[in-house]
């Protein structure tokens, strides 16, 4: 762990080979990446500068301050005929990170852990996802009205998040659902689509083609425990507090 004048940041070595692509070219390829928890929820990758294409980086004169890491030098990334300002940063005065670069995840073309593409952010080695079938009676109410009733639920347990109850669409009132254009992506489950429920925007979601480790929830629908009333075996579940 690295400590600066204010705040702390958690740093751990990654055992994975990490590759980054930008402008249709390989920007970095390393087995020496660091996982850095800049936020509590998930880590980001810092890659050894020695394993990055040096001709792709140019300091653009900008800086960014972090209480735990000091002042970062911002870089423009240029490769394959494409250029993005402030797409990378280095903390030159950090004892731990001074020889590493962090790329802006969303500005890159693609990230690979070993030979598998990973989306949204680096996977947290301390996050576990367990998916279990359950015959418990699950009922969902929105504004006091039952919108789902099932004895064929699939429960998803993810480290640090509330239990999610995934239900077959046939156990959900279809007239209560309105498909929206919202999409999100999870590095453990894949891309989700959303529905408004009885006029409340994006209360339910589903993974039409989840990643291999989450195949059990294919096509099932979950509701935000934080925003609806969920009864399990006729017991009202307390609405959890989470970042959602």
Overall description:
- By secondary structure, the protein is mainly β.
- It has two domains: 2-118, Metal Binding Protein, Guanine Nucleotide Exchange Factor, Chain A (Beta Complex); 129-236, Metal Binding Protein, Guanine Nucleotide Exchange Factor, Chain A, CATH 2.170.150.
- It has no helices and 23 strands.
- The chain has strands at 2-3, 8-13, 18-22, 25-30, 34-37, 44-48, 57-66, 70-79, 82-90, 100-103, 110-113, 116-118, 129-134, 138-142, 145-150, 153-158, 164-167, 177-186, 190-197, 200-206, 221-223, 229-232, 235-236.
- β18 (177-186) and β19 form a beta hairpin.
- It is elongated and about 60 Å long.
- 30% of the residues are buried.
Q: According to CATH, what is the class of the largest domain?
A: Mainly Beta
CATH architecture of the largest domain: Beta Complex
Overall mean confidence score, pLDDT: 93
Question: Based on helices, strands and strand pairing, what is the structural class?
Answer: mainly beta
Count of discrete domains: 2
Give unreliable regions as ranges: 1-6
What overall geometry do the principal axes of the alpha carbons give? elongated
Write the CATH fold name of the largest domain. Answer: Metal Binding Protein, Guanine Nucleotide Exchange Factor, Chain A
> Ends: how far apart?
28 Å
Assigned CATH superfamily of the largest domain: Domain of unknown function (DUF427)
Q: Give, in order, the helices and strands.
A: EEEEEEEEEEEEEEEEEEEEEEE
Count of DSSP H/I helices? 0
Radius of gyration: 21 Å
> For the largest beta sheet, what order do the strands appear in spatially?
1-2-5-6-10-9-8-7
Helix percentage? under 10%
Approximately how much beta-strand content do the residues carry? Answer: over 45%
Total strand segments: 23
């Amino acid at each position: 762990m690295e400590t600066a004048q204010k705040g702390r940041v958690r740093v751990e070595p990654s055992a994975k080979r990490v590759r980054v692509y930008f402008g249709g070219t390989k920007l970095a390829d390393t087995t020496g990446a660091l996982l850095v928890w800049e936020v509590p929820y998930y880590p980001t990758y810092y890659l050894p500068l020695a394993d990055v294409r040096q001709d792709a980086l140019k300091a653009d004169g900008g800086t960014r301050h972090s209480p735990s890491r000091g002042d970062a030098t911002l870089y423009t990334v240029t490769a394959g005929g494409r250029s993005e300002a402030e797409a990378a940063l280095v903390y030159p005065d950090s004892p731990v990170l001074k020889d590493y670069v962090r790329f802006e995840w969303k500005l890159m073309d693609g990230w690979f852990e070993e030979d598998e593409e990973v989306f949204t952010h680096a996977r947290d080695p301390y996050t576990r996802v367990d998916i279990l079938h359950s015959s418990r009676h699950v009922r969902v109410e929105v504004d006091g009205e039952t919108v789902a009733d099932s004895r064929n639920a699939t429960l998803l347990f993810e480290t640090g998040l509330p239990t999610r109850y995934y239900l077959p669409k046939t156990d959900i009132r279809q007239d209560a659902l309105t498909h929206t254009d919202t999409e999100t992506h999870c590095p453990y489950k894949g891309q989700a689509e959303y529905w408004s429920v009885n006029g409340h925007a994006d209360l339910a979601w589903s993974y039409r083609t989840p990643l291999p480790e989450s195949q059990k929830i294919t096509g099932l629908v979950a509701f935000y425990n934080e925003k609806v009333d969920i009864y399990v075996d006729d017991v009202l579940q307390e609405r959890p507090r989470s970042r959602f």
